[in-house]
């Protein structure tokens, strides 16, 4: 593609009455290029790529998508490096270079992050649809001693009814007990529970809404027939009722 400086020289040479043949020979460009510059009156040529060609990696994009998605779902310590993914793709018959795989993987990751950023939890709810769960740390006076307690909050999203219970720690047993006491207080459960990514519930955070939940936490949700939903990291507004 011609740079602005070359275009300027072509225009000056033409309007100084040099022949097109001389201009082509002097600047090593084709006659069609010189005619395009002169007839259009442009001072800059831009080129927009509408379709990205993948001559080598094109037939392998579907397979590479599956490999990248499977790798993203693994725990962080178990994930393959990009060079390992490239080597595995080569073992399957891919004969292209590593740079093409690296560029494609970067594009894939960017699209996945965009999809994750666009996800949200709705803030309007039907009766019995969902509740929100969260913890807070409070400083209290017990028998004349100042101490910190962990307070569990369970709030029904439709009616905004709130259940609060304090505990000495924030262990998984306390999480289970808070749910048991809250559901007894509400005299029922909801179909969904909205949580942050607390360690007592979530083992691994994947792209988007995918989570690897703790086995015992899943058992509790299965017992109460609750479908757990985790918020996007650092997005407290997705369970704004209980946060407030």
From TrEMBL:
GO MF entries: nucleic acid binding
GO biological process entries: DNA integration
UniProt keyword annotations, A-Z: Plasmid
Segments forming domain Integrase catalytic: 123-244
Name of this chain's protein: Putative transposase
């Amino acid at each position: 593609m011609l740079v602005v400086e070359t275009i300027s020289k072509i225009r000056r040479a033409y309007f100084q009455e040099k022949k097109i043949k001389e201009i082509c020979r002097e600047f090593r460009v084709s006659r069609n290029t010189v005619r395009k510059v002169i007839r259009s009156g442009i001072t800059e040529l831009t080129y927009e790529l509408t379709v990205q060609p993948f001559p080598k990696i094109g037939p392998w994009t579907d397979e590479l998508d599956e490999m990248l998605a499977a790798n993203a779902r693994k725990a962080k310590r178990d994930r393959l490096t990009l060079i390992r993914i490239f080597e595995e793709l080569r073992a399957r018959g891919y004969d292209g270079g590593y740079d093409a795989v690296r560029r494609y993987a970067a594009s894939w990751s960017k699209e996945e992050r965009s999809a994750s950023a666009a996800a949200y939890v709705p803030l309007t709810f039907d009766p019995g649809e969902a509740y929100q769960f969260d913890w807070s740390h409070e400083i209290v006076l017990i028998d004349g001693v100042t101490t910190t307690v962990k307070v569990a909050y369970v709030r029904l999203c439709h009616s905004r009814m709130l259940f609060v219970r304090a505990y000495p720690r924030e262990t998984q047993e306390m999480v289970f007990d808070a749910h048991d006491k809250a559901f007894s207080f509400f005299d029922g459960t909801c179909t969904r529970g909205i949580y942050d990514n607390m360690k007592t519930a979530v083992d691994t955070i994947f792209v988007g809404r995918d989570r690897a939940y703790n086995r015992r936490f899943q058992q509790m949700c299965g017992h109460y027939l609750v479908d757990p939903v985790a918020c996007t990291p650092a997005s407290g507004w997705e369970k704004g009722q209980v946060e407030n």
